[in-house]
Each structure stands twice: as C-alpha cells, then as structure tokens.
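Newbie here. two chains, one complex. Structure please?
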Amino acid sequence: MSMGANTNIIIAGVGGQGTVLASKLVARAAMDAGLRVRTSETIGMAQRGGSVVSHVRVSEAPIASPLMAPGMADLLIGFEPGEAVRSLAFLRPGGTIVTNAQPVAPVAVSPTSAAYSGPAMLERLDGCGARLAVIDGAAICAEIGSLKVLNVALLGAAAGLGALGFSLDQFETAIRESVRERFVDMNLRALHAGARSASA
Amino acid sequence: MKADLSNPPRQLLSGDDAVALAALHAGTALGIGYPGTPSTEILETFDRLDGRAQWSPNEKTALEVGIGVAFAGARALVTMKHVGLNVAADPLFTAAYTDVDGGLIIVSADDPGMASSQNEQDNRHYARAAGLPMLEPVDSQQAYDFTWLGFELSERWKIPVLLRLTTRVCHSLTPVLPRAPITPKAADFRRDVPARVMIPAFAKPAHHRLRTKLAEIAAWNEAEGPLHIEMGNQALGIISTGISAMHAREAAPEASHLSFGLTYPLPIERIRAWATQFERVLVVEEGDPMLVEELRAAGISVESKTERFRFSELDVARVRRIITGDDSEEPAPPQGKPPELCPGCSHRTVFHALRELDCIVAGDIGCYTLGVLPPFSAMDTCVCMGASITTGLGLRHALPEAQARRVVSVIGDSTFVHSGLTGLAEMAYNPPPTGHLVIILDNETTAMTGQQEHPGTGRSLDHSRAARMDFVAVGQAMGIKHVELIDEAAKDVDLKACIAECLARDETALIIVRQPCVLAAPKIRLYEKTAAAATSETS
C-alpha cells in the first residue's frame, strides 16, 4: 500500500455524472486498506442536474469533520471543467487536478452569451500552479461503450498518476465488491483506460 | 451500489443507513414516514434490509400510525425532514403527554444551509417546546448507537424520543460497528385510558407526569448520558453538539472539547463542572444560539458565535472564524450550476403555457418549483407543502378582478396527496367570485426526493400494488365544477386553450396533467410488469 498519512479528495461534478459512486469506491478501497475514512455529499438538487460536490477524507489517524476547509485537498477530481474551477479553493498548493475535458453547460446560459466556455475553464486550471491531467472522458466512454463509466475512468486516471494513494489493483477489488456483477467488466476496462490516458 | 449491511463487523454507512440498520437490529415493527431530503434513504434502506416500511401521505399521518404501533407495545420509527415535523407537530405535542409501551423514535433530519429545503429551521426547538428528549449523533456510529438508545429511553420512560440528524450526518459515510440483533417483544394491547385518552381530566395529570419524566431523564443524563471529552489545553474549552463537534475538533485540535448526545434535557451540572477548568469556554453550535442561551440561563459563563453564524451550515473554516472571533465578511461561495427541469420533463409544457398566458402562479414544493427559474420564470409564490391551492385562493379573494382571473395554482401529485386535499375542499367550499383553477402536475411519482411512491401512484414503498387514489373522482366528489384529465389519451387537447377557458369562467376547475416523470418512467414500467406477474401467479 502506497497510501500516505492522509489524502483529502474533492470530487466535483453535476447531477447524473456518477460522483457519488466515485466517492463510495474510494471509501471502499480505503476501508479495505484498513484506513479511516469519512465522506460527505451535497446531493440535494443533484437529480435535476445541479452541482454536486463530494468530500472524501482518508487517513491513518482519526478524522473528525467530514468536510474539508479551503486549501486542504490533495486531489481535485473534476467531472466537468467548470465544476473543477468552482472547487479550486479546496485544493492545497501543489495539489493535483484530474479533470474531464468536456464541459456541461447550464441550460440557463443562452447560446449567444459567452458566459461559459470549457476551454477557458481548462486554461484557468492550467494556470493555477497545480499538477493537471485533462482526460478525454467522452473518448473513453465511447471506447467502453457506456456514458456511465466516466466516474471510474477519472478514478483510474487519478490512481494511474499515483494521486489517490491506492493502486489500480486495490480499486479493482473495490469495484468488484461494490458494482453489480454484470457491470464489473465494463468498469474495470474504464479504470484501466483512464489510467492509460493519464500516463499518455 | 449495493451496501452490504447484513454482516458485521465494520461497515461504511451513511447516517441514514445507520439508523435503518439499527432500527432493524433493535426489532422495529414498522418504519413510517414521508420522503424528504435528507431523511428519505432511512426507510428505503430499512425496506431493502427486509424491515417493514411504508410511505404515509404525510408526516402527521405517519406519526399517528407510529403512536398506534407504540401503544400496541411494538417499536416504531417515524422519519421526516425538518419541515415535516411542522406537519406532524399536532400529534407530537400531545403524544408527549401519553405513555407509549413500545419505543417510539421520531427522526427529524434538518437541512442547515438549505441544500434542498425551503427554510433552515432549527428543530432543536421542538424538543424544548414539546418536552421530548432529543438525541443528536455526530456520525454514523452514533446514529446507529443512538437509535438503540432512543428505543431504550423511550420504553424506560414511556415517552417518544426525537432523533435529530442534519444533512452532514445523514449523507456522510463513516464506519459503523453493529451490535447483535434482538428479537422484539410481541405486541399486546394493554388498556390504559388515563395515559392515552387526552381529555382535560386526564391531560392535566399527564402534563405533570411529562415534567416528572423529563426531570428523571435529566438526572439520568447527568449520571450516565452519552458524553465525549477530548482534553487539550486549559486555554480554551469548546462545548458543541452534533456535526459541529466534529468541525470543532478539527478546527482546534489543541483545545479541549466537550460534546454530549442527549441535548435535551441537558446535563447542566456536568457541563458546569467541566467548564470551570478553562480560561475561555466557547459554545460552537449550528443554527440558532440555543445551547448558549440555555447555558447562560443556568449561570454558566460561555462565549458565543456572532449573529453571522446563525445562518447556513458550519464547516471547519467557519468554526475557525468563530474561535478567533473573526466576524469579517466571508468569501461568497462560487456559484454552481443551478438545477433545472430535465429535458423532456412534462412540467415544461405547463410552465410554457402559463407564461404565455401571463398567469400569476401560486406554486408548491417539488421539482416543479424550478419553474421559477429561466427560461420559464413562471412561479410567483412557494411557501410550504399544499400552499399553492390555498395561497392562490387568497390571491383570488383579494386581487382586483382582472388580476384575480390570472391566478393559477400548480401542485405535484405527491404534494397534492400530502397537503392539497384540504385546500381543494376549501376551494369548493369558499370559491372566490372569479372561481379558481388548480393544475395537478401528475408525474406519477415523488420525483424531487428520488421517485418514491405515494397513494396516487397505486404502489407501496416497495413498489408492489396498492390502492390508487383517483384524482378525477376526488375533485368531483369534493364538488369542483370542472374536472379534466389530460393524459396520454388526450394528446390532442390544447393545454393552453384549456387553461384559458378555465380562467375565463367564474367557476372552480381542476386540471390533472398526467405524464410520468422521464426519470421514473422506465422504472414504473418495470414495477408494473413485476406487479402484473405477481398478480397472475397468485390468481
């Protein structure tokens, strides 16, 4: 186990992208590794496509609050570049960002306004001084043949970079334990595709 | 994700799941409630674990069923969100006077910060107002343990117990070590008229009995109530409860910390004795400054947060500010992506028509409250469950005729069953001079909270067949003049024209726009298929 003393992870996305399962998988892997873990979700309006932020705290020592203060996260996983930018304040200096490249624009932004631009968000992430990995989630989902594996692909990318503190093997076990049997294979392929894409 | 809840030892559970597991292990005969974020998962999990769980039409009916179960000598768990307890307040205050035989726990899941609620009321006030013991866990392990403890206290003192959770306890995953399950005692009716028939002659002594029970429970809390102390330095002692205790330990690891689980009635003397050891004693609590006021009233000198921290939820950063007395402006959280009505949502057509007709829309609680946002901007009021119908009537009664004629009430199917039926009776009984129009946005599910069943869907909590309330028949039986159902079969009906026609008449009208929620539709088809198969097997 390559786990450090503790890893604080922010998982940011919008409803329907599978952020909650992602945080559960990290928690499961941490439990299996004998570590302490606390997670917290803000899922109130998630089903209607609103912002969803999960805090995942993993540690060898006891953890008190399930929520991080700004500047505490070692890793920020963005399911969408705009949501990654929104949660940037949680990231510590020198932390790691793994983000999906494809933006999900709010409907309220009119097609004529330039209020939301994916590339501008990525630029912002690139300029913040963190280690950044941009993952082509759409390509991985197309390769695997399911839109539902974005979460596991991003976890694979983070694990591949060594930013999660767990090996891909540990995640494989967590997936086998947590996902319905008929979806296991698909998720394992997504995990490795994510890892490959991060190291490419 | 399937949670493995059946096998000890340590499991990673949300606070909601932990309450459900404890309810199962403690032999709960029935779980009853109405869906509401962040409490909904408790009964869904209890059902998945093969506990007996039911959705009630609303929280009042749920609590009353729970009181009956407890009078029968069995254990009952009643669940709701914070505003649900307002609906259940009537039975709550008088149930406090009665003697329950089986344990009765009422879960109030509060939503400080309003992740998905219309207010952020602090339900600790209910414990004091009704005179009921209140337990407040800090994490899932305590949520599990306090469910057990709640039943024990409830049965020992024959009193209902409030279990108050908050969003961060409900929706955080933390490890839980379960206990060995017990077999519940069999339900058996014991006649006890003075303890259960609350006419004045019996209620007067019952009120005295309640206060005696509370005095005894306070003494128990002083002697052996759940209490957690972490000793640090002598410079600062922090007193906190619930999730605030976890933020405080993280924000000030060098300080000394006291938190306790039974927050009403308080263990005042234990707190007093502990507080004497420190130069500074600070109370850290989310919501209203209740604890600090109670400690000060008892003559314990404590520092308090400033007014700014009454609002929204606390976190580690905010608790640090409270500790250092930093009352400066806090950085505004970056704006997130707002929720919106799903693509293909049946509510969209209705709001589009209402906007085109320039209606004054009295709205209600559910997904469709999003009709207030662009591109629809078609909602003018939203107060509480069911208020669309009655607030709309008030507008109609008071406004000049030209404006009154534009008023429409919109309400969801689950909300209609929850609190709209009496409003419809009011409309038939006291119609405004211009009449009124109510539209039931019937998407055949409780969509907002994650697609739960209700009496209008014709399926139980576990999605098996149940009696189905017929909204058309209800409207007609109540005496509404015009009742119209617009569903799949009435696809050619021009909704806008239909609304305009109703608005032009001086009569009462009810339109039911029925189209299943796009998220729920595939599941509904599956439930119906399963139910049909079950019916053909048994016949």
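Moderator note: Chain B has 21 helices and 18 strands. The first helix of chain B runs from residue 15 to 25. Thread marked as resolved.
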